Amino acid sequence: MAICDVQLARRGNLVLWDAVSNLLLLHGDVAWCVLGDFNVVRSSEERRGRFENTFYVDYAPFNQFIDGNFLIDSPLCGHNFTWYRGDGVSMSRLDRFLLSESWTTLFPNCIQVALPRGLLDHCPILLTINEENWGPKPLRMLKCWTDIPGYGDFVKESCQSFHVQGWSGFILKEKLKKFKESLRSYT
């Protein structure tokens, strides 16, 4: 029974990949991002578990689909695997973004990030542009403010006058809040 299910799944994958290949061929001038749970790995390194003897026949058609359509599978950051079995031993990289060359030309720094999976058996994955992202900016400052006479001294004196106790993140947040209040009154 299990062998029949595997063969049906393989056949279903081939039908799906042929359909996607036809779409890509028909609309080749468009920037493509093909994503999802492909339910297959590209190599034996993308699978770990009780039964690691994956044969070439299992992942060769998927690699042919990717290579034949000139799709790019960028590296995965965050985790090595996107699916985990409940036993904690078996894991695979089943989810991915496959990008066309024209997509990577438009968005050259795309990376795939596997986020924490929480209660699910799959990790959500995120396609993002690899730019320096330090989170929200704690203070907005216009460069022209430095042209105001005495502004630099005001900043130094204000920051030194604030006395806040607590852990470093809290201290920074409170000092910035107080500085913002002082800045509003400074004219």
State the end-to-end CA separation.
79 Å
Q: What is the helix tally?
A: 5
Provide the helix percentage.
Answer: 25-40%
Strand order in the sheet with the most strands: 2-5-4
By CATH reckoning, the class of the largest domain would read Alpha Beta
The counted number of beta strands is: 8
Q: Which oligomeric state applies?
A: single chain
Spans of at least 5 consecutive residues whose pLDDT stays below 50 are none
**What proportion of the residues form beta strands (DSSP E)?**
5-15%
CATH superfamily of the largest domain: Endonuclease/exonuclease/phosphatase
The mean pLDDT is 81
Number of domains: 2
Order of helices and strands: HEEHEEEEHEEHH
- CATH architecture designation of the largest domain: 4-Layer Sandwich
Radius of gyration: 26 Å
How would a crystallographer describe the biggest sheet? 3 strands, antiparallel
CATH fold name of the largest domain, please?
A: Deoxyribonuclease I, Chain A
Which class best fits the helix and strand makeup? Answer: alpha+beta
Shape: elongated
List the helices and strands and how they pair.
Layout lengths: L1 H25 L6 E5 L9 E2 L7 H13 L7 E2 L5 E2 L6 E2 L2 E5 L1 H6 L3 E5 L10 E5 L21 H11 L6 H18 L2
Parallel strand pairs: 3-7
Antiparallel strand pairs: 1-6, 2-5, 4-5, 7-8
Q: Notable features of this structure?
A:
single chain; 187 residues; alpha+beta; 2 domains; 3-stranded mixed sheet; 5 helices; 39% helix; elongated
How would you describe what is shown here?
The structure is a single chain. The chain has helices at residues 2-26, 56-68, 101-106, 151-161, 168-185, and strands at residues 33-37, 47-48, 76-77, 83-84, 91-92, 95-99, 110-114, 125-129. The strands form three sheets. It has a three-stranded antiparallel β-sheet, with no helix packed on it. The protein has a three-stranded mixed β-sheet with strand order 3-7-8, with no helix packed on it. The chain is elongated and about 75 Å long. The chain has five helices and eight strands. Helix 1 (2-26) packs parallel to helix 2. The chain has two domains: 2-129, Endonuclease/exonuclease/phosphatase (Deoxyribonuclease I, Chain A); 143-185, no CATH class. Strand 4 and strand 5 (91-92) form a beta hairpin. The longest helix has 25 residues, at 2-26. The relative contact order is 0.11.
